[in-house]
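Predict both folds.
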Amino acid sequence: MLRSYRPEDGPWIAERHGALYQQEFGWDLAFADLVASIVADMERQFDPAREHCWIAARGDER
């Protein structure tokens, strides 16, 4: 099921991206910091009339 983004998803998105790119490509945690910055910018500038962010979820699992 797809659901709308919630503010508590931001840290999870950054952590999961960081872990995946570290595992797959050997990138350091600076990438997770970059993703966190992008998510924070999205939250500050979000225009619901023009944008949306979906999270795939099953029950409590994202």
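Second protein follows, with its predicted structure tokens after the sequence.
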Amino acid sequence: MRTEPSTAPGPSAPSVRTAAAPRRRGSARPLALAVCILLLAVAVLLSLAVGSRSLPLPEVAHALLHHDGSDPASVVWDVRVPRTMAGVLAGAALGAAGDLIQALTRNPLADPGLLGINAGAAGGLVFALTVLGLTSLWASLWFAMLGAVISSLLVYVLASGGRGGATPERLALSGAVIAAVFTGVSQTMMLLDAQTLDELRFWSVGSLSRSGDTTLAALTPFVAAGLILGLCLVKPLNAMALGDDTARALGTSLNTTRALGLVAVTLLCGAATAAVGPLVFVGLAVPHIARLVVGADQRWMLPLCILLAPALLLLADVLGRIVVRPDELDAGVITAVIGAPVFILLVRHRRTVTA
């Protein structure tokens, strides 16, 4: 009995199409990293040159090479270099933390605040100001970091209870609970102390303008440790993206990976939030941009987030210096105003692609 040949595409047709995208994306990955490095370099130069008193780039270069005590050299070295370096460190920390938390929870809408780290940092800062009366920047940084660590520990302990350990769903729910508790306590203490309310009002916006040598000294070791730990988790995070059962079959310890990932996120997000305040949408939107460019492979995605986030944060800070010159808008305001519509576009694009 003769049968008519089928006109439907064979099984090889979709596989060819789906294989073409990873090949194209793979060839574009080194180019994407190079573009991000160039973008970061441009953002650093603009951050050093632009402000209430803008300096030509040759004058900036001369000031960097010859710290001769002149007025331009003082502006560059005393004000803009610490501010720019704080933006690089905080941006890299928030970008990496956002990528790690989305990988750990397998939730593309997760951000570092999901685990209550921002709320914990705010709680530590409020405690230092209200209860202990500590007003120095160094004390504020360390107590904010301590609050972030305590919050993360509580989240992990709460999520680890019962069978199954700290699953992504339990981490997210535990983070929401701990964040609500810390936020409620912090707001109550702020309402009882007007000085604390004034101090937290500025910090909660998110700004690089108060960054100095003290900020850099406190920020650098935590960010360096968090980035190194995060990069060491690239392989197990890729395995976990395939599902828990597959990850176990590949020899990945899920609980160890999640615990170490939580430590890395705490170091990164806690230090950045303590130093410059909660900068919204940086840790949320940057991983989406990186995922569109290089895919979900953490070997490429995490380095791209580390480069792209500080570039975007510095550009937002530069824009804030320009729009209301000679005054400034804080970087947190710019990232919120620009980040919200950009993130909506990214989510809509993702739905279109997956539809």
